[in-house]
């Protein structure tokens, strides 16, 4: 890693990393990845398009012994065509490999395998039928997404999961067309939909869907709806302030100092103690105290007797 990014503040927790990875998607990633691990399903992880590394950092937490993790992004490399170059310059002007690597190493000891190249290199770089989970969040142009879906299909093991980002955003129609085309004509089968992502497989999704439905029904702040479309069961999930799953702090996290405790209020005097005696009379004003100090004793005594007689009449 170069030193260009050395003077930038390091993330202390996952939310400090710039990017679009809402709590609902973190819950779904956690569910699907943990499910694979619980079932003993092994395989590599692959992400196309990393931006600043937020979802890659999350994926890296699920890397098991003997598995590898590959990420692919243009970073500062030359785009394969003018349209992709214009898209990158407009949407990701601050994306650098240094920034990604600094963020990733804030949470993990080792970097994933990094392909600084267009996603079209993936078929030649990633072994077929080697991955259990693929996250596609690279170019939004139809031609590129079409190719990324094909690369994911070749890379996935039986039962593997692919996640497609921005499949229904208004500014990414190319992703929408390529995604639903794959569902209608290329055998892709939806597992569920979040606000941003489509989760899918090329195998039977029914068992996973049943588990997703059960999970969503147990979440207080998650709306669930079921629909049928073109022979597919469509599960749509929407967050209503869902909390993201817990995630380890980075190496740069420093706990905030505990607030200083306020001094305890003095204890009330016990009954029968001198301080619990009958309440004292009203405090004299400053002028009254001064007058008593300077008046002749005979007058002062007369004033005191008059006050005492007045109180006795009350």
N- to C-terminal distance: 89 Å
Identify low-pLDDT runs. 1-5, 276-281
Biggest sheet, spatial arrangement of strands:
3-2-1-4-5-7-6
The largest sheet is: 7 strands, mixed
Helix content: 25-40%
In N-to-C order, the SSE pattern is: HEHEHHEHEHEHEEHEEHH
Task: Summarize the entry for a quick read.
The protein has 314 residues and is of the alpha/beta class. The protein has helices at residues 23-38, 54-60, 82-91, 97-105, 122-125, 142-155, 173-185, 206-217, 286-294, 297-313, and strands spanning 44-48, 69-73, 113-116, 131-136, 156-165, 189-193, 197-201, 222-229, 232-239.
Please write out the topology.
Layout (H helix, E strand, L loop, with lengths): L22 H16 L5 E5 L5 H7 L8 E5 L8 H10 L5 H9 L7 E4 L5 H4 L5 E6 L5 H14 E10 L7 H13 L3 E5 L3 E5 L4 H12 L4 E8 L2 E8 L46 H9 L2 H17 L1
Parallel strand pairs: 1-2, 1-4, 2-3, 4-5
Antiparallel strand pairs: 5-7, 6-7, 8-9
Helix pairs in contact: 6-7
